[in-house]
Write a structure and sequence with these properties.
There is one protein chain. This protein is α/β, with parallel strands linked by helices. The protein folds into 3 domains: 124 residues, Phosphohistidine domain (Glucose Oxidase, domain 1, 3-Layer(bba) Sandwich), CATH 3.50.30.10; 108 residues, Enzyme I, Chain A, domain 2 (Orthogonal Bundle); 316 residues, Phosphoenolpyruvate-binding domains (TIM Barrel, Alpha-Beta Barrel). 49% of the residues lie in helices and 14% in strands. The protein has an 8-stranded mixed β-sheet. It has an 8-stranded parallel beta barrel with strand order 9-10-11-12-13-14-15-16, surrounded by 5 helices. The two termini are 38 Å apart.
Amino acid sequence: MVDQLKGIAASDGIAIAKAYLLTEPDLSYDRLDQVDVAVEEKRLDDAVEQTVSQISEIRDTAKERLGADEAKVFDAHLMVAQDPEWIGQMKSTIQSQAINAEAALQDVSSMFITLFEGMEDNPYMQERAADIRDVSKRILANLLGVRIPSPASIKDEVVVIAHDLTPSDTAQLDRRYVKGFVTNIGGRTSHSAIMARSLEIPAVVGTQSVVAAVKDGDLVIVDGLEGDVIVNPDQATLDSYKAKAEEFERLRQEWAKLVNAETITKDGKHFELAANIGTPKDLSGALENGAEAIGLYRTEFLYMDSAEFPTEEEQFKAYKAVLEGMEGKPVVVRTMDIGGDKELPYLQLPEEMNPFLGYRAIRICLHEPEMFRTQLRALLRASVYGRLRIMFPMIATLSEFRSAKKMLEEEKAKLVSEGVPVAEGIEVGIMIEIPAAAVLAHQFAKEVDFFSIGTNDLIQYTMAADRMNQGVSYLYQPYNPSILSLVRHVIESAHKEGKWAGMCGEMAGDQIAVPLLVGLGLDEFSMSASSILKTRSLMAKLSQAEMKELAHKAIEECTTVEEVVALVEKAVH
């Protein structure tokens, strides 16, 4: 049966492949007693053997794709799965109580998890509780004959279907096999959408019902240009989308001719087009798409892809790789931005009613100075290998910026006294994502070296509308005159003090917003690598003088988003 769903176009392109459902399986079971003990022991042995084989395969894939350090967590899982005391206690429980393997697994695992979680003075043992939870879930799935989906284990061309994709899920996606993805929830600025653009795979998010509408193996078309998802298309529809995919590929080849071109408007104004990256491995995509800089290196993925805090040396190597890879072009590194929907299993964050407005980013760093200083030392050591710019996220007050910069200066002085070389002239800036900082930009501009406007959060905080909440998604309005007015104030404040202003939110690559931002005089546009060439092509058709007038009209004369969009489309498209 052909089914068509509508969602939000999150990443350009057309994908056609079979569905792979990445959803939590049903692991419910009945607790049985008076069972055949020998049969249950054999079922447990088989499930454990299967689990060891699966974890070994996942570990080898992770080692090949992500490196030995990233695969360590699976070594820990293998140790748990092969622990004779743990398995032995399950068998003893089956024998003594004559219960089924599922129940014995649950009882013994719960006991160990409670024991280890209670060891508050031993973080290593607390981490083992998480390992036991993961491994026991996999053994239970094998006992029940249920597949636990794993993004890292995908070996065929598929379209991933999920309620949502976590940052750790998307980090495991292999673009050789994952041709696109579709989710129930999310918007253009959700992390899954941002990662899709980084991976350059088509995506549609916020369909609300794709998990219910699609079965494993269904043929799915993902139209990341229009936000359409077609399930089990007929031949005419399939042919139509294959033609559309070919046309999009032709356009991409036209844009590809601009890979080495400068970003210049038709009246000769130069702008810097930069890429947002999450790991050193994203660098190749940035360079292949003609990035003139890295405008946002999201260092939190270093932390999220590790089973423990990354060491100074591990961080240094990652930062050095990016700085060297850019061969003297600027690299803006954002210090750790954990919190909100980005959690670390080894950093116990408090339960919060509203984590996006809570304890996160620079607030954690200033409260955990040793963790922050480790990152700052790694950055300073790497600075001699390229053109480093350091950016602090989630800054609300000048005192926060001053405290962070003071720590940076202290670590620099220590390194210099130790004889460690540190580059001179490292620019230090802030991400403007909190309205308080945007409103006070004229004061911040006297002390920072640059601004980078993080519109993903700035918009949701200004509009008081959670960008992940479908019910208020209509309020996520990048072109609202109030947002444009804030952006103008930030840019003008920077220029008045002789500083530059960039933008690293998704608005920077938005084809409606770009003409307005050109008119407002934004200096640097940082975006998903896949948006760079399309944006360069658009900018070449624009006159900055005309766009300046356009932006003025949008802010001073328009009252709604619809009016702004109509104004831009009439002037540009």
